Write a sequence for this structure.
């Protein structure tokens, strides 16, 4: 006879399995009974030592015991696995680090445009957009840009080849008059024509910013692109002064480039503003000492600005004695390049993920 009592084992397993409440404990139980050196294996190994006529009955008993233990283990496993499944949806180990998802993000230019627009919205400006296809009138004539001005040249502006009927369709003006009033159609070379659009359709007070794409037939290199972005801003009311322009642009520069930034207004000329000024900020690379980025000057030009020319007010039907206003226009790519230290404008348009992922 083997020294293990089969009936005692039978009684024991029910009590033992009852107490098990974890997968490792169940595995210990399985090894104890069904393992290679477990109790069932020991019982089986003892069969040849039995007297022959006892062997069959004993063998059957061992077999029944083995099946019973196996089904007990299986049952128990279900009750243990189920709660884990529920917690981790499909037996997922909640303690494991997850698989990182690649999140989409806004293009760096969109981020800079949004940031600048938000700064102006906090100051009470509203955002307006205009079409990229413009009339010669809105892009030049209305803005007091004379017929002989070089920016009107085909080397500086993309003109569209369209029949005059199509031009009148697009501009809403009729017949032969269309061309005389609106001129040819073109891809706008700056966002300033939106000044004309807004002033023609609204009365002061106005505080507006205009983000958008502009086009110029420049040869592409590290600092030129035939398409780029500008943000135009203007304010019109009674008694708007140059100091208002200075105040607004100072808030902008400090918000975008930090409180330490210095600004200067340098006299300049634009046909649609008088007086006009270009605005420089202290070089953000060398802090004004002079380096290769600022061409040893210590200053970086960031925008053009001025007081809106009385002729522009006349062209939109505003009384030039009644109202004054300021306007400014900045290149978004240039500001983004300075802010992030980007040295080639083409990077914005190539959509190389290695570049875009850094923003
Ligand atoms: N439109 C000018 C440019 O593209 C910038 C500007 C806007 C200057 C408004 C003065 C006032 O260079």
């Amino acid at each position: 006879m083997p020294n293990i009592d089969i009936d005692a084992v039978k009684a024991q397993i029910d009590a033992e399995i009852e107490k098990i409440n974890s997968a490792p404990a169940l595995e210990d139980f399985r090894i104890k009974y069904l393992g290679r050196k477990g109790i069932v294996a020991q019982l089986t190994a003892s069969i040849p030592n039995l007297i022959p006529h006892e062997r069959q009955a004993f063998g059957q008993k061992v077999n029944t015991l083995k099946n019973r233990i196996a089904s007990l283990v299986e049952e128990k496993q279900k009750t243990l696995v189920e709660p884990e499944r529920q917690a981790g949806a499909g037996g997922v180990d909640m303690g494991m680090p997850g698989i990182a998802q690649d999140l989409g993000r806004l293009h760096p230019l969109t981020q800079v445009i949004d940031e600048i627009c938000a700064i102006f919205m906090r100051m009470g400006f509203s955002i307006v957009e205009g079409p990229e296809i413009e009339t010669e009138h809105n892009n030049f004539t209305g803005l007091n840009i004379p017929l002989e001005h070089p920016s009107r040249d085909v080397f500086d502006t993309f003109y569209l080849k369209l029949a005059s009927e199509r031009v009148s369709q697009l501009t809403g003006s009729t017949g032969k008059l269309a061309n005389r009033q609106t001129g040819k159609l073109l891809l706008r070379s700056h966002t300033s024509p939106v000044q004309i659009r807004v002033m023609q359709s609204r009365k002061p007070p106005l505080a507006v910013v205009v983000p958008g794409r502009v086009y110029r037939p420049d040869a592409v290199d590290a600092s030129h692109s035939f398409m780029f972005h500008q943000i135009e801003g203007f304010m019109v009311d009674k008694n708007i002064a140059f100091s208002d322009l200075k105040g607004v642009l100072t808030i902008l520069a400090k918000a975008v480039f930090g409180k330490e930034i210095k600004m200067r207004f340098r006299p300049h000329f634009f046909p649609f503003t008088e007086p006009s000024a270009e605005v420089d900020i202290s070089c953000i690379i060398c802090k004004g000492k002079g380096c290769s980025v600022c061409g040893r000057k210590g200053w970086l030009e960031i925008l053009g600005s001025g007081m809106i020319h009385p002729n522009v007010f006349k062209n939109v039907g505003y009384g030039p004695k009644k109202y004054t206003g300021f306007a400014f226009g900045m290149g978004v790519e240039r500001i983004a390049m300075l802010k992030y230290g980007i040295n080639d404008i083409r990077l914005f348009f190539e959509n190389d993920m290695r570049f875009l992922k850094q923003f």
Summary: The pocket of phenylalanine is lined by residues 190, 192, 232, 270, 273, 304-306, 327-329 (CB under 6 Å). The chain has 14 helices and nine strands. The chain has a mean pLDDT of 91.
